[in-house]
Amino acid sequence: MAQQLALTDADLAPTERGSDGLQSFAPDLAFRTFSIVNVVFFGRPQSGEDWVLIDTGLPTSANAIRTVAEHRFGPDRPPAAIIMTHAHFDHAGSVERLAEEWDAPVYAHPLEMPYLQGHAAYPPADPLVGGGMMALLSPLFPRSPVNVGERLHMLPIDHSVPGMPGWRWLHTPGHAPGHISLFREADRTLIAGDAVVTTAQESVYAVMTQRAEMHGPPAYFTPNWIEAEEAVRQLAALEPETIITGHGLPVRGAGARARLHELAENFRAVAVPQGASYDLNPAVPGKSDNDAYR
Protein backbone atom coordinates (compact mmCIF):
# COMPACT_ATOMS: atom_id res chain seq x y z
CA MET A 1 0.00 0.00 0.00
CA ALA A 2 1.17 3.55 -0.70
CA GLN A 3 2.86 5.48 2.11
CA GLN A 4 0.92 8.10 4.03
CA LEU A 5 1.31 11.88 3.79
CA ALA A 6 -0.89 12.69 6.76
CA LEU A 7 -2.91 15.89 6.99
CA THR A 8 -3.95 17.43 10.30
CA ASP A 9 -7.19 19.08 11.39
CA ALA A 10 -5.46 22.43 10.84
CA ASP A 11 -5.12 21.56 7.15
CA LEU A 12 -8.84 20.98 6.64
CA ALA A 13 -10.75 23.76 4.91
CA PRO A 14 -13.51 25.15 7.14
CA THR A 15 -16.95 24.26 5.87
CA GLU A 16 -20.49 25.28 6.72
CA ARG A 17 -22.97 22.42 6.57
CA GLY A 18 -26.51 23.20 5.43
CA SER A 19 -29.70 21.36 6.20
CA ASP A 20 -29.45 19.69 2.79
CA GLY A 21 -26.12 18.11 3.69
CA LEU A 22 -24.13 20.43 1.44
CA GLN A 23 -20.85 21.69 2.88
CA SER A 24 -19.91 25.17 1.66
CA PHE A 25 -16.21 25.99 1.59
CA ALA A 26 -16.42 29.25 -0.41
CA PRO A 27 -19.27 31.68 -1.14
CA ASP A 28 -19.86 30.04 -4.51
CA LEU A 29 -18.60 26.49 -3.88
CA ALA A 30 -20.13 23.61 -1.98
CA PHE A 31 -19.85 19.85 -2.08
CA ARG A 32 -21.65 16.81 -0.83
CA THR A 33 -20.30 13.30 -0.48
CA PHE A 34 -22.66 10.81 -2.07
CA SER A 35 -21.64 7.35 -0.83
CA ILE A 36 -17.94 7.32 -1.81
CA VAL A 37 -17.50 10.38 -4.02
CA ASN A 38 -17.75 14.17 -3.84
CA VAL A 39 -20.02 16.14 -6.15
CA VAL A 40 -19.25 19.88 -6.40
CA PHE A 41 -21.82 22.66 -6.90
CA PHE A 42 -20.58 25.99 -8.27
CA GLY A 43 -22.74 29.12 -7.94
CA ARG A 44 -24.05 31.46 -5.28
CA PRO A 45 -27.12 30.06 -3.55
CA GLN A 46 -30.51 31.63 -4.32
CA SER A 47 -28.83 34.35 -6.38
CA GLY A 48 -30.66 33.75 -9.64
CA GLU A 49 -27.28 33.41 -11.36
CA ASP A 50 -26.16 30.45 -13.44
CA TRP A 51 -24.76 27.46 -11.61
CA VAL A 52 -22.65 24.48 -12.67
CA LEU A 53 -22.43 20.88 -11.51
CA ILE A 54 -18.99 19.23 -11.41
CA ASP A 55 -19.33 15.42 -11.70
CA THR A 56 -22.50 13.46 -11.00
CA GLY A 57 -21.74 10.72 -8.49
CA LEU A 58 -23.12 7.20 -8.63
CA PRO A 59 -26.18 6.04 -10.61
CA THR A 60 -28.14 6.03 -7.34
CA SER A 61 -27.35 9.69 -6.62
CA ALA A 62 -29.45 11.43 -9.29
CA ASN A 63 -32.53 12.13 -7.14
CA ALA A 64 -30.46 13.40 -4.23
CA ILE A 65 -28.35 15.65 -6.47
CA ARG A 66 -31.46 17.15 -8.02
CA THR A 67 -33.05 17.73 -4.60
CA VAL A 68 -29.90 19.42 -3.27
CA ALA A 69 -29.65 21.59 -6.38
CA GLU A 70 -33.28 22.74 -6.04
CA HIS A 71 -32.72 23.59 -2.38
CA ARG A 72 -29.57 25.59 -3.13
CA PHE A 73 -30.48 27.31 -6.40
CA GLY A 74 -34.27 27.15 -6.54
CA PRO A 75 -36.77 24.96 -8.44
CA ASP A 76 -36.82 24.83 -12.23
CA ARG A 77 -33.24 26.09 -12.45
CA PRO A 78 -31.16 23.58 -14.42
CA PRO A 79 -27.39 24.04 -14.46
CA ALA A 80 -25.74 26.03 -17.19
CA ALA A 81 -23.38 23.10 -17.65
CA ILE A 82 -22.29 19.75 -16.24
CA ILE A 83 -18.48 19.50 -16.18
CA MET A 84 -16.97 16.03 -16.07
CA THR A 85 -13.52 15.61 -14.54
CA HIS A 86 -13.64 12.08 -16.00
CA ALA A 87 -16.14 9.32 -16.67
CA HIS A 88 -15.43 6.61 -14.10
CA PHE A 89 -18.62 5.07 -12.71
CA ASP A 90 -18.52 7.00 -9.43
CA HIS A 91 -18.21 10.36 -11.20
CA ALA A 92 -20.44 9.82 -14.24
CA GLY A 93 -23.04 7.48 -12.77
CA SER A 94 -25.92 9.97 -12.93
CA VAL A 95 -24.83 12.08 -15.90
CA GLU A 96 -27.15 10.50 -18.47
CA ARG A 97 -30.24 10.91 -16.32
CA LEU A 98 -29.48 14.41 -15.06
CA ALA A 99 -28.43 15.73 -18.46
CA GLU A 100 -31.68 14.44 -19.96
CA GLU A 101 -33.94 15.68 -17.15
CA TRP A 102 -32.31 19.12 -17.10
CA ASP A 103 -31.60 19.23 -20.85
CA ALA A 104 -28.15 20.44 -19.80
CA PRO A 105 -24.94 20.44 -21.86
CA VAL A 106 -22.16 18.13 -20.67
CA TYR A 107 -18.52 19.13 -21.17
CA ALA A 108 -15.49 16.86 -21.12
CA HIS A 109 -11.98 16.54 -22.53
CA PRO A 110 -12.01 14.86 -25.97
CA LEU A 111 -9.95 11.93 -24.68
CA GLU A 112 -12.78 11.14 -22.27
CA MET A 113 -15.53 11.34 -24.86
CA PRO A 114 -15.50 7.65 -25.94
CA TYR A 115 -16.58 6.76 -22.40
CA LEU A 116 -19.39 9.33 -22.47
CA GLN A 117 -20.63 8.48 -25.96
CA GLY A 118 -21.14 4.76 -25.38
CA HIS A 119 -18.17 3.84 -27.59
CA ALA A 120 -15.68 2.34 -25.14
CA ALA A 121 -15.33 0.83 -21.68
CA TYR A 122 -12.41 1.41 -19.35
CA PRO A 123 -9.96 -1.47 -18.92
CA PRO A 124 -10.59 -3.78 -15.95
CA ALA A 125 -9.66 -2.65 -12.47
CA ASP A 126 -6.50 -4.05 -10.91
CA PRO A 127 -7.36 -5.38 -7.43
CA LEU A 128 -3.75 -6.25 -6.59
CA VAL A 129 -2.46 -2.67 -6.36
CA GLY A 130 -2.92 -0.25 -3.54
CA GLY A 131 -4.01 -2.76 -0.90
CA GLY A 132 -7.24 -2.48 1.06
CA MET A 133 -10.73 -3.88 0.67
CA MET A 134 -11.88 -1.23 -1.83
CA ALA A 135 -9.07 -2.31 -4.14
CA LEU A 136 -10.01 -5.98 -3.76
CA LEU A 137 -13.62 -5.17 -4.59
CA SER A 138 -12.72 -3.00 -7.57
CA PRO A 139 -13.25 -5.69 -10.26
CA LEU A 140 -16.94 -5.54 -9.31
CA PHE A 141 -17.18 -1.80 -10.03
CA PRO A 142 -18.97 -0.87 -13.29
CA ARG A 143 -16.75 0.22 -16.15
CA SER A 144 -19.21 0.27 -19.03
CA PRO A 145 -19.59 3.57 -20.89
CA VAL A 146 -22.48 5.96 -20.55
CA ASN A 147 -24.02 7.82 -23.48
CA VAL A 148 -25.19 11.41 -23.11
CA GLY A 149 -25.72 11.73 -26.85
CA GLU A 150 -25.87 15.13 -28.50
CA ARG A 151 -25.64 16.93 -25.16
CA LEU A 152 -21.93 16.06 -24.96
CA HIS A 153 -19.48 18.81 -25.97
CA MET A 154 -15.72 19.22 -25.95
CA LEU A 155 -14.35 21.67 -23.44
CA PRO A 156 -13.30 24.99 -25.04
CA ILE A 157 -9.85 24.77 -26.54
CA ASP A 158 -8.88 28.06 -24.83
CA HIS A 159 -9.14 26.22 -21.47
CA SER A 160 -12.02 28.35 -20.21
CA VAL A 161 -14.78 26.53 -18.31
CA PRO A 162 -18.39 26.98 -19.51
CA GLY A 163 -20.52 28.69 -16.88
CA MET A 164 -17.54 29.30 -14.58
CA PRO A 165 -15.96 32.73 -15.31
CA GLY A 166 -12.41 33.06 -14.02
CA TRP A 167 -11.77 29.30 -14.03
CA ARG A 168 -9.61 27.29 -16.40
CA TRP A 169 -9.35 23.58 -16.97
CA LEU A 170 -6.10 21.62 -16.98
CA HIS A 171 -5.51 18.26 -18.63
CA THR A 172 -4.34 16.03 -15.76
CA PRO A 173 -4.31 12.49 -17.20
CA GLY A 174 -3.02 9.29 -15.68
CA HIS A 175 -6.06 8.24 -13.69
CA ALA A 176 -8.08 8.51 -16.92
CA PRO A 177 -6.95 9.57 -20.41
CA GLY A 178 -9.07 12.72 -20.48
CA HIS A 179 -9.04 13.55 -16.78
CA ILE A 180 -9.19 17.28 -16.04
CA SER A 181 -8.85 19.51 -13.01
CA LEU A 182 -10.22 23.06 -12.57
CA PHE A 183 -8.35 26.06 -11.16
CA ARG A 184 -9.32 29.62 -10.25
CA GLU A 185 -6.32 31.93 -10.09
CA ALA A 186 -8.12 34.69 -8.14
CA ASP A 187 -8.25 32.68 -4.92
CA ARG A 188 -6.09 29.71 -5.99
CA THR A 189 -8.90 27.21 -5.58
CA LEU A 190 -8.31 23.80 -7.13
CA ILE A 191 -10.96 21.22 -8.01
CA ALA A 192 -8.65 18.26 -8.55
CA GLY A 193 -11.02 15.42 -9.41
CA ASP A 194 -9.10 12.19 -8.81
CA ALA A 195 -5.69 13.45 -9.95
CA VAL A 196 -5.01 13.62 -6.21
CA VAL A 197 -7.36 12.66 -3.40
CA THR A 198 -7.32 13.43 0.32
CA THR A 199 -8.05 9.97 1.64
CA ALA A 200 -6.73 6.48 0.96
CA GLN A 201 -9.54 5.46 -1.37
CA GLU A 202 -8.31 1.87 -1.54
CA SER A 203 -9.20 1.35 2.14
CA VAL A 204 -12.77 0.89 3.38
CA TYR A 205 -11.68 2.18 6.81
CA ALA A 206 -10.25 5.38 5.32
CA VAL A 207 -13.33 5.88 3.16
CA MET A 208 -15.65 5.46 6.15
CA THR A 209 -13.64 7.64 8.54
CA GLN A 210 -12.44 10.18 5.94
CA ARG A 211 -9.01 10.09 7.54
CA ALA A 212 -7.19 12.94 5.82
CA GLU A 213 -3.98 12.40 3.89
CA MET A 214 -2.56 13.65 0.60
CA HIS A 215 -2.81 10.67 -1.69
CA GLY A 216 -2.24 9.81 -5.32
CA PRO A 217 -5.17 8.78 -7.54
CA PRO A 218 -7.11 5.63 -6.57
CA ALA A 219 -4.63 2.93 -7.57
CA TYR A 220 -7.01 0.26 -8.82
CA PHE A 221 -8.38 2.51 -11.58
CA THR A 222 -5.16 4.31 -12.59
CA PRO A 223 -3.77 3.07 -15.93
CA ASN A 224 -0.78 5.36 -16.47
CA TRP A 225 1.44 6.21 -13.52
CA ILE A 226 3.89 8.26 -15.59
CA GLU A 227 1.12 10.65 -16.63
CA ALA A 228 -0.33 10.58 -13.11
CA GLU A 229 3.01 11.75 -11.70
CA GLU A 230 3.22 14.62 -14.19
CA ALA A 231 -0.36 15.63 -13.36
CA VAL A 232 0.49 15.89 -9.64
CA ARG A 233 3.57 17.97 -10.44
CA GLN A 234 1.41 20.27 -12.55
CA LEU A 235 -1.08 20.74 -9.72
CA ALA A 236 1.62 21.33 -7.09
CA ALA A 237 3.12 24.07 -9.29
CA LEU A 238 -0.16 25.99 -9.03
CA GLU A 239 0.46 26.52 -5.29
CA PRO A 240 -3.26 26.13 -4.51
CA GLU A 241 -4.73 27.66 -1.37
CA THR A 242 -7.81 25.40 -1.25
CA ILE A 243 -8.08 21.90 -2.71
CA ILE A 244 -11.27 19.89 -3.16
CA THR A 245 -10.81 16.38 -4.54
CA GLY A 246 -13.08 13.62 -5.75
CA HIS A 247 -12.64 11.67 -2.53
CA GLY A 248 -11.91 13.04 0.93
CA LEU A 249 -12.34 16.38 2.66
CA PRO A 250 -11.30 19.76 1.23
CA VAL A 251 -7.97 21.05 2.52
CA ARG A 252 -6.20 24.38 2.48
CA GLY A 253 -3.16 26.38 3.45
CA ALA A 254 0.56 25.88 3.78
CA GLY A 255 0.31 22.41 5.29
CA ALA A 256 -1.81 21.07 2.44
CA ARG A 257 0.52 22.64 -0.13
CA ALA A 258 3.54 21.11 1.59
CA ARG A 259 1.98 17.62 1.47
CA LEU A 260 1.07 18.15 -2.21
CA HIS A 261 4.67 19.07 -3.00
CA GLU A 262 5.91 16.03 -1.07
CA LEU A 263 3.58 13.86 -3.11
CA ALA A 264 4.86 15.39 -6.36
CA GLU A 265 8.52 15.12 -5.38
CA ASN A 266 8.29 11.55 -4.08
CA PHE A 267 5.46 10.26 -6.23
CA ARG A 268 6.99 6.96 -7.26
CA ALA A 269 7.86 6.07 -3.68
CA VAL A 270 4.66 7.17 -1.96
CA ALA A 271 1.94 6.79 -4.60
CA VAL A 272 2.85 4.13 -7.15
CA PRO A 273 2.08 0.62 -5.84
CA GLN A 274 4.65 -2.09 -6.37
CA GLY A 275 3.72 -4.42 -9.17
CA ALA A 276 1.32 -1.96 -10.75
CA SER A 277 0.31 -3.21 -14.17
CA TYR A 278 -2.42 -1.93 -16.38
CA ASP A 279 -3.72 -1.61 -19.92
CA LEU A 280 -1.93 1.43 -21.32
CA ASN A 281 -3.98 1.49 -24.52
CA PRO A 282 -7.53 2.48 -23.60
CA ALA A 283 -9.84 3.65 -26.35
CA VAL A 284 -9.18 7.28 -27.22
CA PRO A 285 -10.21 9.60 -30.08
CA GLY A 286 -7.94 10.55 -32.94
CA LYS A 287 -4.45 11.94 -32.50
CA SER A 288 -5.46 15.35 -33.93
CA ASP A 289 -7.96 15.86 -31.12
CA ASN A 290 -5.40 14.78 -28.57
CA ASP A 291 -2.72 17.19 -29.82
CA ALA A 292 -5.09 20.14 -29.94
CA TYR A 293 -6.11 19.73 -26.33
CA ARG A 294 -2.73 19.32 -24.65
Automatic annotation (TrEMBL):
The domain of life is: Bacteria
- Pfam family, any one: Lactamase_B
Recorded hits in InterPro entries, A to Z, give: Metallo-B-lactamas, NDM-1-like, RibonucZ/Hydroxyglut_hydro
What species is given as this protein's source? Answer: Xaviernesmea rhizosphaerae
- Its protein name is MBL fold metallo-hydrolase
Which PANTHER family does the annotation name? METALLO-BETA-LACTAMASE DOMAIN-CONTAINING, METALLO-BETA-LACTAMASE DOMAIN-CONTAINING PROTEIN
Q: Which residues form the Metallo-beta-lactamase domain?
A: 36-247
- Tell me the lineage of the source organism: Bacteria, Pseudomonadati, Pseudomonadota, Alphaproteobacteria, Hyphomicrobiales
